[in-house]
């Protein structure tokens, strides 16, 4: 009896499925409900889902590489045959990097698109998707955008690590708004960023893409970029969807190997690494990208507890999760956690991945998994709904095209260029200034500018950079020449970053001997060239095959380091210049902390500019001459040796003992940065109000500019939980503010702490602010604490139930 009933039920379901599929394959009427803007988004999504075939649903989750999807012609640009095939056969839902240009894509200034042609290209692409597909669903176009849109003719901002050095989230929000406006003007909808990874492993190749080592700083800077990208809503034609990277704990892989295994416990994962992501989700971030790495043996693209249980069910995330490029296939090919691509697709989908970046992870493999019953229709529909919902919210069904005249007015306009300089200025960090060598006199007559990064255009810009017109990229040499127009500027490269053949140290020595001051610009490079080999993911490989001359690239995705020394003969060059007796200034242009023990001991003035972007040369010259008083702060500690790492300031108790060979403390600590003026701190006050989760702890402090000139100070507040049920950090940044003070001016700053900032995850994984005493430390860096005080939390405050 039961067998007969089951057979009838199966037959009934089969008929219903057949009817639904026939309905889905029908020609779509012009008045279909999903086409009506008068209905709610949910009504439109539901109507469209019912009409879609399984092939169309799977296709909607595929994001293909975008740069093959257009063809340049004598008259402009048009959609390529590759796009028409992808729309017709794969029924794709999105493209990535359509406007990207770099050595990996083989798109140059000649073969790539300027902003005007970019708008023409995206319109042509959308026309195919909208008018030559059964359902007419517009495509999502996603682009790399962490320090400016990675496309020709756009505004190049400083790298993320330099952005973090500003300690100014409001400035980064302005930058995000500019990047978003440039993206939308050209027809893009999604900006990849911010990167919320904690960079506690300086050997890792992607440190430059992060906001540093501290979860609080990362969250605040990340929130600035998200607000800039998404604004008050993505229905605004100048805003884009923000994609958070990389979920989760990507930046602390074993040995610093990009995408390697990550070994951290549940408490540390939640306390530190998830903190910025939780803040971003609470702020309304609409997209999350998985990581290449595994956490405790579970590939991030296959981690259901993180992607579904935590992200969606506990945090209430409503956007879509996208795999990093090739990471679904990586479940099988890299992590060996699946026996087939079909199994890998099913694992990723069931874990909570909605969209496949690259188009090879889902596609046929996901369709097979669905047809074999390994992925349920409910799960497939939810993934598609997450994507469609945002397309409707953005208004793409009504307005899939852009004004092709707009990019000429918006992209890289004078206001955007000025903002790029402002971000560079605020990020430049003065590490040392012995004898007040800086600022330099405006009346200098002979200046030696030396070093491999003094006049190498692309070495200023970092990874994920498109070819740009040299007119818009200002090197340190160009900036110095512009600032001292009447001085004799003697430029000698001296050596390369890595290569030792291209070296002429005697010429550099001669230039230094002749000059009043020597400015030596060293560091690293993430500048890709057309000889570099690339993996399918776009990461560079270190191999140079038969090239006799090494490229400068020693940082950027795929360029993990075994040491942190200045490469090649850079240190030898600096030592030779210093030996001349000419006052020497070291400028660091780099993407990660490098070992500068000898310079810190022997060179009187050191500036760290990271990768300062297109206006970095002008910004640096303003600092050197004293027209801008530097106030950048280190977002990541600079170690004394590789053997000392990790050396982040907020390590857990106990206090670290010194090594046999050296101190356990960093050479320069998190938050460090000097000024041309001085600041005094006084009158620390702490008070409490409210109860339970509404309790507020108010901290006020007075800061006075006691020096001879105006300047910015970055006031930093740290907390220490004096007694806790589990081990906690020796101190934790919990507030900061960048303020400008005129000579002699004072200002009272007020910080408000909530119980959530005091909370920890206890042994039962409950999120709780435990009763007890907390120490407040206020100062100019994690090491330079000027004032301390304390307060007591009378009762424990519970925030969440036990995490899954």
Can you summarize this structure?
With 804 residues, the chain is α/β, with parallel strands linked by helices. It is built from 23 helices and 29 strands. Helix content is 31%, strand content 19%.
User: For the record, what is the CATH homologous superfamily label of the largest domain?
Assistant: Glycoside hydrolase, family 3, N-terminal domain
CA-to-CA gap between the ends? 42 Å
Rounded radius of gyration (Å): 27 Å
Count every beta strand, where a strand is a DSSP E run of 2 or more residues: 29
**Proportion of β residues?**
15-25%
Main beta sheet strand tally, sense and closure: 8 strands, parallel
Indicate the CATH class of the largest domain. Alpha Beta
Provide the CATH architecture of the largest domain. Alpha-Beta Barrel
- The number of helical elements comes to 23
Helix/strand/pairing category: alpha/beta
Sheet with the most strands: spatial strand order: 12-9-7-6-5-4-1-13
- Arithmetic mean of pLDDT: 94
The CATH topology of the largest domain is given as TIM Barrel
**Uncertain spans:** 1-20
The dominant shape is: globular
The helix content, as a percent range, equals 25-40%
Tally the structural domains: 3
């Amino acid at each position: 009896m039961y067998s007969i009933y089951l057979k009838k039920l199966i037959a009934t379901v089969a008929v219903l499925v057949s009817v639904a599929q026939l309905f889905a394959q029908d020609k779509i009427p012009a008045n279909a409900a999903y086409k009506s803007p008068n209905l709610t988004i949910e009504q439109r999504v539901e109507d469209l889902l019912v009409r879609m075939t399984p092939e169309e649903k799977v296709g909607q989750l595929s994001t293909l590489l975008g740069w093959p999807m257009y063809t340049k012609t004598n008259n402009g640009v048009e959609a390529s045959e590759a796009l028409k095939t992808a729309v017709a056969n794969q029924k794709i839902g999105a493209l990535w990097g359509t406007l990207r240009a770099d050595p990996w894509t083989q798109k140059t200034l000649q073969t790539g698109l300027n902003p005007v042609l970019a708008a023409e290209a995206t319109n042509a692409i959308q026309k195919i998707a909208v008018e030559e597909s059964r359902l007419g669903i517009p495509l999502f176009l996603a682009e790399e955008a962490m320090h400016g849109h990675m496309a020709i003719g756009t505004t190049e901002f400083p790298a993320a690590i330099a952005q973090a050095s500003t300690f100014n989230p409001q400035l980064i929000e302005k930058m995000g708004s500019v990047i978003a406006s440039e993206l939308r003007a050209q027809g893009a909808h999604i900006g990849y960023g911010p990167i919320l990874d904690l960079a506690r492993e300086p050997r890792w190749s992607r440190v430059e893409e992060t906001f540093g080592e501290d979860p609080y700083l990362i969250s605040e800077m990340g929130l600035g970029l998200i607000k800039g990208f998404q604004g008050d809503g993505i229905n605004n034609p100048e805003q884009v969807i923000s994609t958070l990277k990389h979920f989760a704990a990507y930046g602390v892989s074993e040995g610093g190997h990009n995408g390697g295994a990550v070994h951290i416990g549940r408490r540390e994962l939640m306390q530190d690494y998830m903190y910025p992501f939780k803040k971003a989700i609470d702020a309304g971030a609409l997209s999350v990208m998985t990581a290449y790495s595994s956490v405790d043996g579970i590939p991030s693209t296959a981690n259901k507890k993180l992607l579904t249980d935590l992200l969606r069910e506990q945090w209430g995330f409503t956007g879509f999760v996208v795999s990093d490029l090739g990471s679904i296939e990586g479940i099988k090919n890299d992590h060996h956690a699946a026996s087939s691509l079909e199994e890998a697709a099913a694992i990723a989908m069931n874990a909570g991945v909605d969209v496949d970046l690259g188009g090879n992870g889902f596609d046929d493999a996901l369709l097979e998994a669905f047809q074999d019953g390994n992925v349920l229709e409910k799960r497939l529909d939810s993934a598609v709904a997450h994507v469609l919902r945002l397309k409707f919210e953005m208004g793409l069904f009504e307005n899939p095209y852009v004004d092709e005249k707009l990019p000429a007015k918006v992209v890289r306009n004078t206001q955007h260029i000025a903002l790029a300089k402002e971000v560079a200025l605020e990020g430049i960090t003065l590490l040392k200034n012995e004898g007040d060598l800086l600022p330099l006199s405006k009346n200098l007559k002979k200046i030696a500018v030396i070093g491999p990064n003094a006049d190498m255009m692309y070495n200023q810009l970092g990874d994920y950079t498109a070819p740009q017109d040299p007119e818009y990229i200002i090197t340190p040499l160009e900036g110095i020449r512009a600032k001292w127009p009447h001085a004799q500027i003697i430029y000698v490269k001296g050596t390369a970053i890595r290569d030792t053949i291209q070296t002429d140290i005697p010429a550099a020595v001669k230039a230094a001997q002749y000059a009043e001051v020597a400015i030596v610009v060293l560091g690293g490079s993430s500048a890709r060239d057309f000889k570099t080999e690339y993996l399918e993911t776009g990461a560079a490989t270190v191999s140079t095959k038969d090239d006799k001359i090494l490229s400068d690239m020693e940082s950027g995705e795929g360029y993990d380091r075994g040491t942190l020394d200045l490469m090649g003969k850079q240190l030898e060059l600096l030592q030779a210049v210093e030996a001349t007796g000419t006052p020497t200034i070291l400028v660091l242009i780099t993407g990660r902390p490098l070992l500068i023990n000898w310079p810190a001991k022997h060179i009187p003035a050191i500036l760290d500019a990271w990768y300062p972007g297109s206006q970095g040369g002008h910004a640096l010259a303003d600092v050197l001459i004293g027209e801008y008083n530097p106030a950048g702060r280190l977002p990541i500690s600079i170690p004394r040796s590789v053997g000392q790492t990790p050396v982040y300031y907020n390590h857990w108790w106990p206090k670290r003992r010194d090594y046999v060979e050296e101190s356990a403390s960093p050479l320069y600590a998190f938050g460090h940065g000097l000024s041309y003026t001085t600041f005094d701190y006084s009158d620390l006050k702490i008070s409490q109000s409210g109860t339970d989760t509404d309790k507020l702890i108010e901290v006020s402090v007075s800061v006075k500019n006691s020096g001879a000139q105006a300047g910015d100070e970055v006031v930093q507040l740290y907390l220490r939980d004096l007694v806790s049920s589990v081990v906690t950090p020796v101190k934790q940044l919990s507030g900061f503010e960048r303020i400008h003070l005129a000579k002699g001016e004072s200002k009272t700053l007020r910080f408000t702490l909530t119980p959530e900032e005091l909370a920890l995850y206890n042994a039962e994984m409950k999120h709780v602010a435990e009763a007890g005493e907390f120490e407040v430390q206020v100062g100019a860096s994690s090491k330079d604490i000027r004032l301390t005080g304390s307060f007591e939390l009378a009762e424990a405050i519970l925030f969440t139930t036990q995490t899954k």
